[in-house]
Amino acid sequence: MKKRLLPAAVLATALALTGCGTADTPSTPTPGASGALTPIKLQLQWFYQAQFAGYIAAVDQGFYREQGLDVQLLEGGVDIVPQTVLAQGKADYAVAWVPKALASREQGAGITDVGQIFARSGTYQVAWKDSGITKAADLKGKKVGNWGFGNEFELFAGMTKAGLDPGKDVTLVQQQFDMQALLKKEIDAAQAMSYNEYAQLLEAKNPATGALYQPGDFSVIDWKTEGSSMLQDAVWANTDKLNDPAYQQQTVKFLAGTIKGWAYCRDNAQACRDLVVAKGSKLGKSHQLWQMNEVNKLIWPAAGGIGVINDADWKQTVELSLTTKNQTGDTVLTKQPEGLAFTNDYIQQALTRAKAAGVDVNGTSFQPQTVTLTAGGA
Amino acid sequence: MRRVLSALIGLVVLVALWEGYKAVGNPDGTVLLGVRILPRADDLSMPHVWDMLTRLGRPELTGGRPVWRVVLSAGLFTLGITTLGFAAGAVIGFLLAVAMQRFRLVERGLLPYVILSQTVPLVALAPLIAGWGGTIWPEWMTVAVIAAYLAFFPVAVGMLRGLQSPQAAGVELMRSYAAGWWRTLVKLRLPASLPYLFPALRLAGAAAVVGAVVGEISTGTRGGIGRLIIEYSREATSDPAKVYTAMLGAALLGLVVAALVSLLELPLMRHRRRVSVVTM
Q1: In the prediction, which pLDDT does B134 show?
Q2: Which residues have C-beta within 8 Å of that of residue B59, sequence separation ≥ 6?
Q3: Chain B residue at shortest CA distance from A89
Q4: How far apart are CA B140 and CA B130, in angstroms?
Q5: Is B161 exposed, middle or buried (0-12, 13-18, 19+ CB in 10 A)?
Q6: Per-residue pLDDT at A3 exceeds 80
Q7: How far is CA A283 from CA A75, B18, B243, in A?
Q8: How far is residue A125's CA from residue A128's CA, in Å, rounded to a whole number?
């Protein structure tokens, strides 16, 4: 519990509830006016891992501090919904996937996408090479694993696009968050994130050879090439508070620090991996480096600058959210998002700021590394 | 001595069952009419006990602490939370029971809600309480509150039964002594409730463990065994034995709490005899 590291009342703490210096502070003090840092909370989607390396690096390397912000990262959990935490005012910003956040918006969460950090989707459907499954249409008649809980819509959109009726033409199987079902051939194709579950496959030992599974053992359906990908990790802000000039300023500063953090992790993947590992991630070093590298691929190169919401991608995400039915016949959204669902105003200002500070916000020359995974990702 | 022996035998039987099933079971599991009735016996689903034990000895990650130390310190962390939750739950349950015994109205009004409280799913409750973490109390308190929430129930209900257990003759005897409510409580009802209290406390202990582990999983509170189970289960694809090391830790935690609760009974044991005299 890192809060205890705060100097305030170390001994008096254990039960002293507010003594830990994390009590609510007025939300809009003049940032940096008196040299005091503005405390900010960012709610992540999950435990510390390289998926959030940019934020972790921005905290650790002092990029937020440069902006006059004291950012505290809040880890996610099984039942923690970042956009809900944000809407309830328990965090100042949140990282969330666009379709899920839009669904929460439709149910009344007042949140706005202010920075589309991941420009590309990292969702795969992975099958065994010898199954002959290489595209969505090949899933016909197969047992198809999916995560459910709103993580499955790219798969369903892809199948629908390929002319399949997900309810009839495939056998849908609720998939756990590990890849055992695919390895045991209980399912023919499994959902996987390029930066996580796919790596887990390549960290597992093939009993037939005694060596790790190789990419050549699997075939991957990438929803980006199937045209059914949706926008994922974005920074969300509180819509109401965006009317407040102080919060607007703070948002620009927060995004500027975030941009610098991700640019740092693009250029220093190993260092960022070490930062994540030092944060106490239980995933191994090679796994984290793989994740860092894959996440970088989802961000860079960023033609319009990191975080800018591309109109066409946004439209595709909303369109698929409105039209794609999952096995229970639900769509993500029932109507077009109302109000301020996204804005590029703040990210543009932040990009200007970052560029002025000499940060490469496009990463045109970005080259992914080749990461060698070890057994168990250790 | 005999108890230790029988516990050991139980452990051996458990291991023998696990390994025995692995030896004879179908690696692909037994499927009847499309429903899997017996689990897969392959190493991915059911690692050898030996593999789990050796996994405990190997480092968690390259260059890291051995798994057993990680599991142990996580277990201690969760034990602390469990103890706090258990204590708070037991006190609250006790006070509720006394209040319900004292005032019929409170019992009628409160008991349905006490029962209702346990039907609220933790998944709904945890995020709600989790929001308070970090603002009005440290995050681990959230988990302790969830543990207390599950632990108070058996104590409240069991204790109420216990307090109401003295026969009319006993109560009338006290009345004939002109003993007030307080005296009757201390001299008659509390001693009489002990046989009800002990099983209730054991249930509360188990509930507190479940609450703490599930609460940690739900809120992602770092440091404890619940979080470890989630983290390790993500690696089940490539390192199936690792998940079971965390489960072993959780099982050990349950045993320790059960033992601690029975220790709690020791100083109260001597009252037991008196109880039977009074309630005769």
Answers
A1: 62
A2: B65, B66, B67
A3: B131
A4: 9
A5: middle
A6: no
A7: 15, 28, 13
A8: 10
* pLDDT at residue B133, rounded to an integer: 64
Nearest CA in chain A to B224: A1
**Which residues of chain B does A375 touch, with a Cβ-Cβ cutoff of 8 Å?**
238-239
Kindly determine whether residue B141 and residue A79, on different chains, have CB atoms separated by under 8 Å.
no
Fold: same for A39-120+232-377 and A124-226: yes
Q: Is-contact A237 A9, C-beta < 8 A?
A: no
Q: Tell if the CB–CB gap between B237 and A23 is shorter than 8 Å.
A: no
What is the C-alpha R_g of chain A? 21
- Reported as a pLDDT band with limits 50, 70 and 90, residue A148 is confident
Q: Searching chain A, which residue's CA lies closest to the CA of residue B231?
A: A282
Beta-carbon separation of B131 and A178 below 8 A: no
Give the residue from A294, A197, B26 showing the smallest Cα distance to A187. A197
Residue whose C-alpha is closest to residue B215's, from B81, B58, B38, B119: B81
- pLDDT tens digits along B156-210: 999 999 999 999 999 999 999 998 899 999 999 998 998 899 899 999 999 999 9
Is A81's CB within 8 Å of B61's CB?
no
Report helix angle B190-219 to B225-233, nearest 10: 40
- Contacts of residue A378 in chain B, CB cutoff 8 Å? 61-62
A37, with CB counted inside 10 A (0-12, 13-18, 19+), is: middle
Give the model's pLDDT for residue B135.
66
Q: Any idea where the domains of chain A sit in the sequence?
A: 39-120+232-377, 124-226
Superfamily of domain A39-120+232-377: Periplasmic binding protein-like II (3.40.190.10)
Structure tokens at B254: 């349950």
> Cα(A252)–Cα(B28) distance, rounded to whole angstroms?
55
Non-local (6+) Cβ contacts of B146 within 8 A are B85, B122, B125, B126, B129, B211, B212, B214, B215, B218
Distance from C-alpha of B274 to C-alpha of B280, rounded to nearest angstrom: 10
Query: Residues A250, A255, A260, A265: what is their CA dihedral angle, to the nearest 10 degrees?
Result: 130
Complex-level ipTM: 0.77
Three-class SS state of A307: strand
Percent of chain A with pLDDT over 90: 73
| Nearest of B151, B154, B161 to residue B87 by alpha carbon | B151
Tell me phi and psi for residue B18, to 5 degrees: -60, -55
- CB–CB of B53/B248 below 8 Å? no
DSSP H helical segments within chain A, as ranges?
Answer: 53-60, 63-66, 82-87, 98-106, 153-161, 180-183, 197-202, 223-226, 245-267, 269-278, 285-299, 311-323, 345-356
Contact B238 A283 (CB under 8 A): no
Q: What is the pLDDT of residue A166?
A: 86
Residue of B nearest to A75 (CA): B220
The 10s digit of each residue's pLDDT in A162-184 is 999 888 899 999 998 789 899 98
Q: Quick check: A80 and B236 CB within 8 A?
A: no
For residue A276, give the amino acid letter.
V
Mutate which: B129, B234, B242, B243, vs A, most A CBs within 10 A: B234
pLDDT, chain B, mean: 86
Tell me which residues of chain B have a C-beta less than 8 Å from any C-beta of chain A. Answer: 28, 40, 42-45, 60-62, 123, 126-127, 130-131, 134-141, 217-223, 227-228, 230-240, 242
Tokens representing B195 are 């046989």
A39 sits in which H/E element? strand A38-43
Give the architecture-level CATH label for domain A124-226.
3-Layer(aba) Sandwich (3.40)
Average pLDDT of span A217-239: 95
